[in-house]
Design brief:
Shape: globular
Largest sheet: none
Radius of gyration: 21 Å
Number of helices: 11
Strand content: under 5%
Distance between the termini: 29 Å
Structural class: mainly alpha
Oligomer: single chain
Number of strands: 0
Order of helices and strands: HHHHHHHHHHH
Amino acid sequence: MTALRNVAAIVQKEWHHYFASPIAWVALFVWTMLFGIFFYFGFTFFLEQSMRVAQQGMQYPGGAGMKLSLNEYLIRPVMQNMAVVALFIAPMLTMRLFAEEKRQGTIELLATSPVSDLQVVLGKFFAASGLYLLLILAGLVNVALIWTYAENPPEWRPVVTGALGLFLLGSSFLAMGTFVSTLTRNQIVAGILSFCLFLGMWTLGWADSPTAGPVLQVVAYLGVTSHLEDLVKGVLDLKDIVFYLSVITFGIFLAHQSVESQRWRA
């Protein structure tokens, strides 16, 4: 219980810093604004296509019963677009976690406090991932409106699995960004290095191809976007969940080892 209280105290401290600075408010504004924009244009496109199909159905009675899927035309593209936004938002949430502590000299206070290095790393990661989860939930308010007003609402499963995939993808970025933040005392450097790392993790998925050899298939499997496709389609595959959890665990492990090595060097 003491370990949980220590982690919770770190989370509370980090959330205080997030909302006492512009970081959380800017992230919330940017995320909800872009989510709303993507949702608006996606919904407009869906309505246009639905009207076109309805007109064709009137001309050709055989196609009158055809209905477009909200999940395919709206939910899936919005989730995929927000995954790109997560690529830019994640460095904002992690760049200060340890870099700011080093710059202000408060990292020594943490090192001498009765809190273990792992508890510090977990507390900071959970704080960042908790704020990221808040962003996702704020964006999903747009989707919730569909169930209120649409005569044929979308299936709930792709929405849930898509949001889960978006959270796991972002959490993978946050775990690796937490590690990067332990390497420098400069927030800007930490943010730039984190973005470059996230972009590299993203582009690994581009190696996926029907003609790819065994090596490229392994490289493509390590790409974070390769495991998002099925989730946004509503397919919950255990291998995708295990992959993201493995990346998160690896990032936390690296951050813990980095913090521990710095304590011994000090």
